[in-house]
Structure formats: structure tokens, C-alpha cells
Design brief:
The longest helix has 17 residues, at 115-131. The protein has one domain. It is α/β, with parallel strands linked by helices. Helices cover 42% and strands 13% of the residues. It has helices at residues 23-34, 71-86, 92-104, 107-111, 115-131, 163-177, and strands spanning 13-16, 38-40, 47-49, 63-68, 136-139, 179-180, 183-184.
């Protein structure tokens, strides 16, 4: 996926991650607790928090932080997100998802309605890319804040995910980041 912004440096902060990984939560935390004003999916005084930068090849920010949330929670939420957006195919968000799926090699899963599998591949694609970068990393669970509110996206066909299958797919990378199947290491 192409970075939506040009590659020149701004001297600002970028916090990025997979969608539904806690970027809005992190945005609120820094704004409220530390008066660091990061725009959520837009430019802010000190930088931005945006998932679309997750694929940046030459980010234009001085500090880039990869935001991570437990993979099983993220995959569950991504599944709901894809189902909701698939029913509104004229939305730009759906077009972004389709583009990412095509570039990431998991479009067949998305096109076939294999939502959990597609969400799992999305998570793996983002964090495999982040592994190769010299970016800082933060886990949402490490913040001493009340839990983020439940997902705000509609759940028209809420699916249960097979946690054992999902964990088998992501366990190597998830363990490297500091997660266990049941929580945090």
C-alpha cells in the first residue's frame, strides 16, 4: 500500500498500526494525559495517528511508533469492520481494504467472504512489515488507562472467530511482540 502522504520529513510523530489496534485509544491518551496533540487520521500539531501509514516505505516523520493490540482482539474487530464495510462498497474505507488485500495477496479470502482468514492475513501483513522497520513499539495493554470503549462499528453478521486457528497463524509474530494466546507475556 502506498503511503498517503509524500515522504519528506516533518519532525513530527507518527503512531500507526493495524486498523482496530487501538490507534484511537492512543490518540486520546496522548491528547488528554500528555497534551501531545496528534490528529486521529488527520494531521495534528505534533503529528498523526493513522493506520494507513502502516505500509509507509519512507515515512516523513521523525519518530514512528507501531501500535499493537492483542492479535485475537484485533482480528475479531477487523472481521466485524470488514463485514460492515463490505455492505457499503462505495465507502473509501472499503476501497482501501480491497487495495490492501490485492497488494497483500489475500484478496481471494476477502472476495470469498472468508472474513476471519482475511483479517488474520491483514494483521500478519501489517506487523510483518513493522518487524522490518526500526520503529518504536507500544502495546495498548501496557497503558494504565481504563479500557477503550467497545468497538463502535456495527456488527451486522457478528462471527465468532476460531481462536485456536487464529493463534496458530499469528503465534510466532505475536510471541515476538510479547503476547500469549491468553494475554501478555
Amino acid at each position: 500500500m502506498k503511503d498517503p502522504y509524500p515522504p519528506q520529513k516533518t519532525g513530527r510523530i507518527l503512531i500507526t498500526g493495524c486498523p482496530r489496534s487501538g490507534t484511537k485509544f492512543i490518540h486520546r491518551y496522548f491528547s488528554r494525559q500528555h497534551k501531545v496533540f496528534l490528529g486521529h487520521e488527520c494531521e495534528g500539531k505534533h503529528g498523526t495517528v493513522e493506520w494507513r501509514h502502516a505500509y509507509a516505505r519512507q515515512p516523513r516523520f521523525e519518530v514512528t511508533i507501531s501500535c499493537v493490540r492483542h492479535p485475537l482482539l484485533t482480528i475479531r474487530s477487523l472481521t466485524d469492520l470488514m463485514i460492515a464495510y463490505s455492505q457499503q462498497k462505495d465507502r473509501i474505507e472499503w476501497r482501501w481494504i480491497v487495495t490492501l488485500a490485492k497488494e497483500g495477496g489475500w484478496f481471494q479470502l476477502l472476495d470469498g467472504g472468508m472474513w476471519v482468514e482475511a483479517a488474520t492475513m491483514w494483521w500478519l501483513t501489517v506487523y510483518s512489515h513493522h518487524r522490518d522497520k526500526e520503529w518504536l513499539q507500544m502495546r495498548v495493554e501496557d497503558f494504565n488507562m481504563p479500557s477503550p470503549p467497545p468497538d463502535q462499528h456495527p456488527k451486522p453478521n457478528a462471527l465468532e472467530i476460531d481462536k485456536d486457528w487464529c493463534w496458530d497463524q499469528v503465534k510466532d509474530l505475536a510471541t515476538e511482540i510479547g503476547y500469549t494466546k491468553g494475554g501478555i507475556q
